[in-house]
Task: inverse folding
């Protein structure tokens, strides 16, 4: 018989994270485009971010037919949080028109799946592309980062919001994420974690 799950955070009821999820307001509107392969992932950090932010929405799919409407939010400047060629530092984007709130589009998936989302939704490629500062380190101790400075979705969103809305803080969003990581480590056992995941 399957374990009962919380309908909100989608975790097993005996590991529900809802009590740790904050309710934070932001000027920035966060639009998370999640690849379907991430939905049932045990560490679905994008969902935690969407639940903790009042001004955020999570869409799941590969092709987003209503993307033009999603991006045409009046009074917002859209940008795509995705590193690589042509990406400007997010701090530069934030400073260029600080009085206008950003619409921050965040593709959620592995690097390969996130690139696929961009390929299948060409409108995303027309957005100004922004990147976080180099040298950030992830607290995501259960996944080997594919690139130096790679963050989980919730960590990237927190970093981005703290740049866009400085000096406001959004690290309360990381509380359920850290509890999730600790729970996974406890479930596998400390010795197994050290052997398979701990960095030298």
Result:
């Amino acid at each position: 018989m399957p374990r009962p799950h919380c309908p909100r955070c989608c975790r097993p009821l005996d590991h529900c994270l809802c009590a740790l999820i904050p309710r934070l307001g932001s000027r920035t509107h966060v639009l998370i485009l999640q690849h379907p392969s991430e939905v049932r992932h045990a560490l679905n950090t994008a969902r935690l971010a969407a639940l903790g932010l009042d001004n955020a929405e999570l869409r799941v799919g590969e092709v987003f037919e209503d993307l033009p409407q999603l991006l045409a939010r009046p009074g917002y400047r859209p940008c795509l949080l995705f590193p690589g060629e042509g990406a400007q530092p997010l701090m530069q984007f934030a400073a260029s028109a600080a009085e206008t709130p950003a619409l921050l589009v965040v593709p959620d998936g592995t690097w390969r799946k996130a690139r696929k989302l961009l390929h299948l939704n060409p409108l995303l490629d027309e957005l100004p592309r922004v990147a976080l500062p180099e040298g950030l380190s992830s607290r995501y101790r259960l996944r080997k980062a594919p690139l130096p400075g790679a963050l989980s979705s919730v960590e990237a969103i927190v970093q981005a919001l703290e740049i866009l809305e400085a000096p406001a803080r959004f690290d309360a969003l990381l509380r359920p994420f850290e509890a999730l990581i600790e729970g996974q480590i406890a479930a596998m056992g400390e010795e197994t974690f050290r052997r398979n995941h701990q960095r030298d």
